[in-house]
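--- STAGE predict ---
source: upstream dedup step, 1 unique chain passed
mode: sequence only
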Amino acid sequence: MERSKAKNAASASHARRRVLRTILASAAATLGSSNGRAQQRLATPRGTGRAPIARSATLPLAVDLASDGRAGATRRQPILLFFDRDECPYCERALREYLVPMSRDEWRDRALFRQIEIDRPLSLVDFDGSTTTHSDVAARYGVTLSPTVLVVGPDGRPLHEPIVGLLTVDFYAAYLGNALSAAAATLER
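--- STAGE serialize ---
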């Protein structure tokens, strides 16, 4: 019975993600159809071609997720993975207004925060100890849009559905807090 509920929840989560991706792709195509240059700037794994945005706030870059996983297991803490692109203005806002303050205040001793650069092949150690890159980790999790927040357990397994985009600024802090709280509760069991 529990497996059936988990399977249904996973199916619903995948369906919501698929719908969101379709909506975002449709919006991008609509904007791009009226301007040829805008269509060329649709996101690819390497970015949109826009100039990088200097970050006024960042989280610690993911370097050794296996070590982070061991620390998370010892302390029973979730790991928040923030997927970013160099040219993403919404990423800058999410970092500056929400994620960095949360990582320093309310969640400082209750979760680990790591930043993953979708469009950069920076080297890192994955949860299983293998050497990989930031862009490969993003691809493994199916992350193509930025910003995306994924809260995972010490083994790298997602504990909550991803938070994709910065669509509803008024509720973004609540979405982040709910994802972290749900993940922390799962790890405390």
